[in-house]
Amino acid sequence: MRWNVDIKAEPALHPLLNLIARTGCWDRVCVGSFSEARVVRAQRLAGPRLATSYGTRGVLNLRLRSWGVPAALRGSAVAAQVPETQSGIQVVDRRFVRAAHARGLQVHVWTINEADRMHRLLDLGVDGIMTDHIGTLRKVMEERGVWV
Predict the structure, then answer these.
(1) Cα–Cα distance measured from residue 4 to residue 51, given in angstroms and rounded to the nearest whole number
(2) 3-state SS assignment for residue 53
(3) What is the pLDDT of residues 46-94, one digit of tens each?
(4) 54: helix, coil or strand?
(5) β-pair partners for 129
(6) Are 8 and 33 in contact (CB under 8 A)?
């Protein structure tokens, strides 16, 4: 099982990293936060073995890059964990997925609960879907022949 953990508050940072170290689950946890600075601190404390996703700034810069606009990106992230849309702006489309994959990043989309949206996003090439309806996602994955 793999876990995405969103560090919502600074006081959670050290206990989370201690738990990951104590259990040795470095290869099964991806740490993210809306705060790019918090994710950078987590990575600085844990080192390169900690998988992280982009915060808000990283996602914005990846979106800009997908449109051909130069923007700085942190090289240590392994994923962009994003909403499908934000404030009426499409975040996840073919260009965004292509830009992420070109940098070796996975794209995880949240929170998708409808089968048709799941299919559409998987058709775009997203690597992960976060959902409140695991049964729906399982059915979609079974229909696509990828549920193991």
Answers:
(1) 10
(2) strand
(3) 999 999 999 999 999 999 999 999 999 999 999 999 999 999 989 999 9
(4) coil
(5) 109
(6) yes
